[in-house]
Structures are given as C-alpha cells and as structure tokens.
Design goal:
The protein has 126 residues and is mainly α. The chain folds into two domains: 1-44, no CATH class; 46-126, AhpD-like, CATH 1.20.1290.10. Helices cover 78% and strands 0% of the residues. It has seven helices and no strands. It has helices spanning 2-8, 10-18, 25-39, 47-61, 64-77, 81-94, 97-120. It is globular, with a radius of gyration of 15 Å. The model has no long low-confidence stretch (mean pLDDT 93).
Length: 126
Amino acid sequence: MATRRAVLGEAHVDAAETGTTALDEGFQTFITEGAWGSVWARPNLTRRERSMITIALLAALGHDEEVAMHVRATRNTGASAEDVAEALMHVAVYAGVPAANRAYKIAKTVYAEARDDTKQQGGNHD
C-alpha cells in the first residue's frame, strides 16, 4: 500500500478505497499486493523506469483511463514529460501510430490540466 500511495498519490488511493465494495474488495487487494507490493516494489528498476514502461504498455493496449492515471502519477515517479514522449515513440513503432497518437493526446490533456490546477492554486511552475 505504501508503494501504491507513493506512486498514485494519497487522494487517488483514498478514493479507490472509499469506492471499494464487497464486489471488488478482493480485486483491490489483488492490485495492492500483486502490482504494487510485488512488481512495483521490486528493486531492479526505478519508479521512473517502471512508470515509463507502464505508460507504454497501457497505451499500446488502449487503456486510456489507466494511461491518464499513470501520466498523472509521473509527478511522483520522476518521469518527465520528455520521458513519456520517448516511451510513446516506442508505442508508435511497436504497437502502432494510432495507439501512440491517442496516448499523446491523453498525456497532453493531463499535463494541461496540471498546469491549469497550478495556476488556479496561485503557483507559477512554468
């Protein structure tokens, strides 16, 4: 759970936990233990590297909501917008231009929303 919170952020995980019902309780446990407690916690890759791999895989498979979630998580993993762009270039070559094109649009939207949020909060991080 600590890794899941560190990558996705407290608000995201809190919302997922609040929305958990008897129907998906086992699934939420599976995600936490399998993805976050096992794969994301392994020592051989950095969170930045895992983030780039995850975004590329999700984009290649067309999982748009998950792409957006993991692009948002890059603020916690250390993957830059340039890193994401490089990962998506691999998607274009190995999974197809349409998949990469869709993922670039998602990433641009996420980054634009983050800039808008920063401006609304009175910060200027440009």
